[in-house]
Amino acid sequence: MLHGPNLNLLGLREPGIYGSMTLIQIDESLKLRGSELQVGVDCLQSNHEGVLVDAIHNAREKYQGILINAGAYTHTSVAIRDALAGVAIPTVEVHLSNIYTRENFRHHSYIAPIAIGQISGFGADSYLLGLQALVNYLSGVRH
Ligand code: DQA
Q: Where exactly are the structural domains of the chain?
């Protein structure tokens, strides 16, 4: 699980948009759901694009899938998109808010075209839905 910039402020940051759960609580919920699904989940948050690019490179041969909320880098970062495409690890993009009902600049995602899919607008549930979708994809389950 990769969290991009400003997501360390979850709980405090614009709670009307992003909800009241903290990043620690979201990570705990992902690890718990992961253990129910019998998969391990490691989580990293960074406010720095290069740290996220390095983490994506280092995911090669270590992780089978990537769940990412790239925060504002979703809308700006060709580098993160190229890193994800470069390692070719199946990726699910998630967002707490529905990026398509917000400002125009949030409507474009550089990540969406190279992701398996995107889940946007379900608050903290977006992460759990994204994890479920990624695990289903990796296990070959299609509904
Ligand atoms: C976000 C949406 C982005 O537009 C914003 O920059 C974020 C959070 C979300 O989860 O809703 O930081 O990715």
A: 2-130
Q: Which fold has domain 2-130?
A: Rossmann fold (3.40.50)
Atom of ligand 1 nearest to the CA of 70: 13
71 Cβ contact partners less than 8 Å away, ≥ 6 residues apart = 3, 4, 5, 6, 7
Geometric angle at alpha carbon 100, from 95 and 44, rounded to 5°: 15
For the residues 23-52, what does the mean pLDDT come to?
98
CA 47 – CA 40 distance, rounded (Å):
24
**pLDDT (average), residues 26-39:** 98
- The b-or-e profile of 93-112 (16+ CB within 10 A means b, else e) is bbbbbebeeeeeebeebbbe
Question: How confident is the model over 100-134, as pLDDT tens digits?
Answer: 999 999 999 999 999 999 999 999 999 999 999 99
- DSSP bridge pairs for 66: 91
Using a 6 Å CB cutoff, which residues line ligand 1? 6, 69, 71-72, 74, 95-97, 99, 106
CA dist., res. 65 & res. 115, Å (int):
11
The model carries a pTM of 0.97
Catalytic residue among 3, 63, 73, 95, which? 95
